[in-house]
Amino acid sequence: MFDIIKELMKNTFAMKVGTVFMGTPQFAVTILASLLRSSYQVCAVYTQPDKRAGRGRPVVFPPVKKLALEHQIPVMQPETLASSEALEQLASLQPELIVVAAFGLILPPEVLSLPRFACLNVHPSLLPRHRGPSPIANAILCGDELTGVTIMLMDAGLDTGPILSQKKVGVSFMDTTGSLSLRLADVGAELLLETLPKWLGGELKTHAQDEPQATQSKLITSEDAEIDWHLGAVELWRRVRAYNPWPSCSTWCQGKRLKIHKAIPLGDRRAGQVGEVIALAEQPGIGVVTGEGTLGLCQVQIEGKRAMSVTDFVRGKRDFIGCILGGE
């Protein structure tokens, strides 16, 4: 009975800790939602500034902002946290804990030292592997069969702080950055709620990252998704998955952009020149000759049209087979 009462008191204390949440994309929404469902006292949410996007360039809110507004939580969207104005605003909130998940801004030392329970980061990789801004895509690009989530104590470095907890997640051979992000977000939300009461209750010890094992991911740009057909089929298959849903691998096809949404690597290189579209006896029926092996096309999208199966695409574009992809 005493243990049960002790646990209830610890959780009640944890939920009264004034918390600031910092995050931007859908991954962060899942983490924030878990805090709100668990009745943690989130006194403010920090996210990236609104942006214009899409046809007509309407203003688009970051996903985290939408959730915060639904719960009537104040939203701050500074361009930087290093300005005196931003620091004063954050300090005025008197946060006891800051939780960060895919925020997108560097936290200066003045912010890191502000909350008494520190700044915790929910990072979607098994640190020290895949530090940096694109850990999920990088895990797919590297062909990892295993990744996960790390709850870490933030320091002045980029994802270099001590580790509080980790949980492993398998990577499916069909996973995209989109599908893997959803799974890692759920795991991260669960792991955070398991970790916070122990951290706030002084029961957790941190352990340093194994520095020689560290790897770094880079910020992905739209240029990264341009297909070079001289690469091997396995490498291109990983890129198609890693850059789905954004920026989406693409190539030139008879003067128009062709996005490759789904593909599969085939071991044998068939007759034809690099970049040539060929018919296949096996599924998916259409492939492209690469520098090593053949990349089977499953789902494509030509500029100005919707995404469709390659079978439907070829049905409406008979001259697709035999054309050379790449180049403008």
Number of helices: 9
**Helix and strand sequence:** HEHEEEHEHEHEHEEHHEEEEEEH
Radius of gyration: 23 Å
> What would CATH call the class of the largest domain?
Alpha Beta
SSE layout and pairing:
Blueprint: H1 2-15, E1 19-23, H2 26-37, E2 42-46, E3 51-52, E4 59-60, H3 63-70, E5 75-76, H4 84-92, E6 97-101, H5 109-112, E7 119-123, H6 135-141, E8 146-153, E9 163-170, H7 177-200, H8 233-242, E10 250-253, E11 256-266, E12 277-279, E13 286-289, E14 294-302, E15 308-309, H9 310-316
Explained architecture:
With 328 residues, the chain is of the alpha/beta class. It folds into two domains: 212 residues, Formyl transferase, N-terminal domain (Rossmann fold, 3-Layer(aba) Sandwich); 99 residues, Formyl transferase, C-terminal domain (Methionyl-tRNA Fmet Formyltransferase, Chain A, domain 2, Roll), CATH 3.10.25.10. Helix content is 29%, strand content 23%. It is built from nine helices and 15 strands. The strands form three sheets. A seven-stranded mixed sheet has the order 5-2-1-6-7-8-9. Strands 10, 11, 12, 13, 14 and 15 form a six-stranded antiparallel sheet that branches. It has a two-stranded antiparallel sheet with strand order 3-4. Helix 1 packs across helix 7, helix 2 runs parallel beside helix 7 and helix 6 packs antiparallel against helix 8. The protein is elongated, with a radius of gyration of 23 Å. It starts with a helix and ends in a 12-residue tail after the last helix. The N terminus is likely disordered.
